[in-house]
Amino acid sequence: MDDNYGLIEVVDAKNIFDDPETLQQYSKDMSFVPPVRPRCVVKPQSTEEVQRIVKWANDTLTPLVPTSSGIPRFRGDTIPSVGGTVIVDISQMKKIIRVDRRNRVAMIEPGVTFGELSPALEKEDLAPFMPLLPRRSKSVVASYLEREPITTPSHHWDSQDPLLCLELILGTGDLFRTGSATGPGTIEEQWAVGRAQIRPMGPSQMDPARYIQGSQGTMGIVTWITLKCKILPKIKKAFFVPAGDVENLIDCTYKILWKRLGDECFILNAYNLACILAENGDNIKTLINELPPWVLFWSTEGTGLFPEEKVEYQEAELRDVAQSFGLEPVPSVGGTAAVDVSDLLLRPSKEPYWKLRLKGGCHDIFFMTTLNKTPEFVKKVRELAESHGYLSRDIGVYLQPTVQGTNCHCEFSLSYDPQSLEEVTKVKEIDTAGSRVLANSGGFFSRPYGPWVDIAYGPSAYTVIAQRKVKDIYDPNGIMNPGKLCF
């Protein structure tokens, strides 16, 4: 290994990797973004090392791409867009710095996965807000920064939730903190007087975390965050509300959310539910035929002084709401109890990752919309798939209400065999054509990865101008993940 233009003087040589196998691994992922080989991979162990790396990159004008999740990766956001890039893999920074039971807040470094965070929180009678069965290697920090939806819309008060404060090394090399973490006083001094870095807005009237979220590492490298936690329930009940068509579930879901009933609440089609429940392709195919075409999954958690009474009245309210729309909550479908699914949702996906179980590859198309518009999007995607010779029954659908149900994460998962050129080509064509059709129909691609950048930014010239002004302040030399978003 050469000195990589002085990098070896900044970071311990044992944490710099430029062997062909490592470079090949970081040059691509499971997306359709073209592979680009990085110069090397560096794995810092501390905030101070990250800061030295960024300052070195400014001195040498070396592009940096941060990453914190392990393989498999799916979005293309950690693939270099230019040659000579150094990958900054911060997955080794795994400290759970603090768990504050009183304020229901945890402070963690970016290498912490959900599988590592959950047991640590359980010791304090807490639990994290989870996305839908993340892969085992998924960084909690990365998930929250990318605004992956959580499964509990009743606890989702703002698009930033459950992220609170954060610390990052800007593209300039300066250390920057947001929200109440900015002061007054040091972090330790704030802890000493009972503060817990809860308020996300700040410093002053700024709210910089909003444009750091979703920025795909183009503004800087986050070195820790604080996050909201929830109390572990004393009792829990869960139900499926089955339906023959997704339209039958929409008004019922709206009413449930309007009445603030329950905790977990989302809609899956039979394909996605089968992939979650079964462990291999043959079992998935069998189970799909045994499940209802669509299910609304709902759970309620009993905490506080009267947990049994809370669960009892919530269940009664759910039944009244569902029956008013001609639906019936049931405790199980296809031989699987809803409470067992609820238990699965407390942890990352078992191996193999649930989206890869049928064919080994999966490509997601997702965007924001409102729940009432999702049936039309389902219809459009199915028609598009059939027009490209892709069986619409092999498309997974996940509808996750967010921000108290005021909007909805709409996600379509297209499975394919990575070794089949025909299947890969079909999915690529559906993504290219379908994404634009969905955007033109009102789908908002709030997390524009790869080719979705043109869809998101093409009609938004003023947004591009504004974001580039912010980029010039945070990263004037353009070293942070160049080529991503509109930079």
Largest sheet, in brief, is:
6 strands, antiparallel
Number of strands: 18
Report the average pLDDT across residues. Answer: 95
State the distance separating the first and last CA atoms: 31 Å
Uncertain regions spanning at least 5 consecutive residues: none
CATH class of the largest domain: Alpha Beta
The share of residues in helices is 25-40%
Share of residues in strands = 15-25%
CATH architecture of the largest domain: 3-Layer(aba) Sandwich
Counting DSSP H or I runs of 4 or more residues, the number of helices is: 15
**Considering the protein shown, what is the CATH homologous superfamily of the largest domain?**
FAD-linked oxidases, C-terminal domain
Number of domains: 3
**Alpha-beta content class:** alpha+beta
| CATH topology-level name of the largest domain | Vanillyl-alcohol Oxidase, Chain A, domain 3
For the CA atoms, what is the radius of gyration?
23 Å
| Overall body shape | globular
